[in-house]
Amino acid sequence: MANVTLKNVYKRFGDVVAVRDQSLEIRDKEFLVLVGPSGCGKSTTLRMIAGLEEISEGIIEIGDEVVNDVAPKDRDIAMVFQNYALYPHMDVYDNMAFGLKLRKFPKKEIERRVQEAADILGIEQLLKRKPKELSGGQRQRVALGRAIVREPKVFLMDEPLSNLDAKLRVQMRTELSKLHDRLKTTMIYVTHDQTEAMTMGDRIVVLKDGLIQQVDDPLTLYNEPNNIFVAGFIGSPAMNFMDAVIKKEGDTYYIDGDGTFKIRVPEDKENLIKDYVDKDVVFGVRPEDIIDTSITHDFDVSEDNSFKAAVDVVEPMGSEIYLYLAEQGHSLIARVEAESTAEVGDKMNLAVDLRKIHVFDAETEDVIF
Amino acid sequence: MQITLKDIARMAGVAESTVSRALNDKKGVGEETKLKILKIAKEHNYRPNQLARGLAAKKTNMIAVFLSEMDSPSNIEIVKHLEAAAESEDYQIILCNTNNQEEKEKRYLSLLESNQVDGAIFIGGKLVGSHLLRASFSSDNSIVLVNRLAEENFFTSVLTDYSSGIYQAVKHLIKQGYQKIALVSGPKDNLVEEEKTTGYMEALEESELKLNHDLIYSTESSREAGYNAFLKIIESEVIPDAFISTKELTTIGLVEAIKMGGYFIPDDFAVVGYGDNILTSIIEPPLTVLSEPLAELAKKSFYFLLKLINDGLDSQKIEVLNPSLIIRDSSIKKYN
Q: Which GO terms describe its molecular function (chain A) (predicted)?
């Protein structure tokens, strides 16, 4: 069993608090991604689990053992960082084996482990090659192999793909996910890239300023963000945010954008919003949930779910079009179908899918719905 | 007693700040005054307090040299060359002997982490451990490894390709016409010794000669072990016609045993020894040896460190150097 547990963990560097009150349960065999902008404490968290940073307060457990005072080498973990060295004079076999050799593992055992790792990574045929005869992806696999041969309980990875070019990065993402399926080991993965997090993680931890913002599976994170930060961080292009006020007319509640838009609060959400009448809120809608009303056929466009905006920029992406819109100081992005005929300067009628809109408390930035 | 900036100012009859500007070659000092100040400083053998200067410039002009083993002659040789290289750049070295102990390494690492030195060079030692790994995460810590390996993170390194030396030796002996080449290597569970054996096997594989495992002999690194290795090998089924020894002391013992047995070098047995130094140089006949690139290791590593300290290296550097084969009489076949 290799679940990893953090209980009220803090890390302070002098007066700076890098990690605050983190409690987290990482399940056995889970692929957990820590994501957030630089300085959010994700690498520090990983290094504390690794034992490379002492924790200032709290408890970390690996398996059922408290590891606060256990040396890194005795924690049964293997680390993979973005920078790694393949030694140019050693062949692939030795580049994977030298650590075990220096730790004086028996020769037979080393052979077994390297063969097994090579098999898992699909690099058996490369064992006799030198690094300069390998492609970038193959090299990355050798670096992973070096961690795999240690047969750890937990893999810790800190931006292992960030030195690769974009194409290779996408390819290695899939490979790492497959690798996780095959190894069936707990993996904790740090990245600043939300796409990487969304595509790889069983669950994702979003961090900001050393604080956990939300822990959820990718879809929940995307559909039900806890606050403005998570909503804006997950998804690309990012969610549109517009200042608004909640208005009540008769029995109906509206999200009022001061003349720019007036969207009706769905009935099932009314009880969540009733305390916010005449209060400032932030209206959030993802670019993909804005609809070009001129090309939609099965969407019921009404005054309650639509608004007008001028097109500033049209960015055709092939399969879809990004429209940069502006209206009375609000600016937003819409991701519409490729058939859209929108042109710069057009005043368009746009609709939003009411099931997918979000409203946040303007003061606390927490989600209302 | 060391002369200070204050003393010079008094003697020259100027302000301390003027002395400082003159010594640091900065503007705002008349040529005449400057010459006068420099003259006094020279006469009194003025040396700036490196620590104080370091505090001002955030530089100490000192580097830490971590030594994993004090008794290794090669390591000491590298340190000597390092010191010379450092001195030529106005740097001083602080020697930190870790005896391969992580705790000692951790304590000495505080020199680097508290900026008491500008950088650190690590010579030899076990796989990079957690303290050094942690230190490497900060780009402020300039670190170069010499003959030391790291698993997780990248370190600027200068390494010796031990296999290539033995490879060259085997190729040379084959070219001379020797066919049964024995390898007397160090302890088996040592990575460096294993690399040397790899070089031996690779060279044989490339030639027509068959690999005979009986000709690979692994032993301690001592004079006695070298002596006994010869006695053991000539009792085996295949008698070699040449020996390669991978350790300095073993080489001495091996040569002694050959001579004691009444054999001649290279007539009965050719010998390629290890280490071009005082020990191997007094052997008769002059010994063909493999020489590790110690001076080059020192120079390269210091150069990399200096770059890291000053403006950083523009790319990741791992330089691998090859030992050189110095051919003398002990491996030259006189008659064919």
A: ABC-type transporter activity; ATP binding; ATP hydrolysis activity
Helix axes A92-102 and B191-206, enclosed angle (nearest 10)? 150
CATH of domain B5-48: 1.10.260.40
ipTM above 0.90 for this complex: no
Q: pLDDT value at position B3?
A: 76
Query: How far apart are the C-alpha atoms of A368 and A78, rounded to whole Å?
Result: 41
Average pLDDT over residues B114-136: 93
> Following DSSP, what letter does each residue of B216-285 receive, concatenated?
EEE--SSHHHHHHHHHHHTTSSSPPSEEEESSHHHHHHHHHHHHHTT--TTTT-EEEEE--SHHHHTSSS
| Confidence tier at B54 by pLDDT (50, 70, 90) | low
Return the CATH fold of B57-154. Answer: Rossmann fold (3.40.50)
Bridge partner residues of A243 (DSSP)? A282
Q: Which one of B68, B137, B151, B194 makes the best mutation probe of the A interface by having the most chain A beta carbons within 10 Å?
A: B151
- Is B134–A89 a contact, with Cβ atoms under 8 angstroms apart? no
Contacts of A52 in chain B (CB under 8 A): 130, 133-134, 137
Q: For residue B322, give the chain A residue with the closest CA.
A: A89
Is residue A255 within 8 A of residue A287, CB to CB? The reply is no
Q: Which domains are seen in chain A, by residue range?
A: 4-233 (3.40.50.300), 240-361 (2.40.50.140)
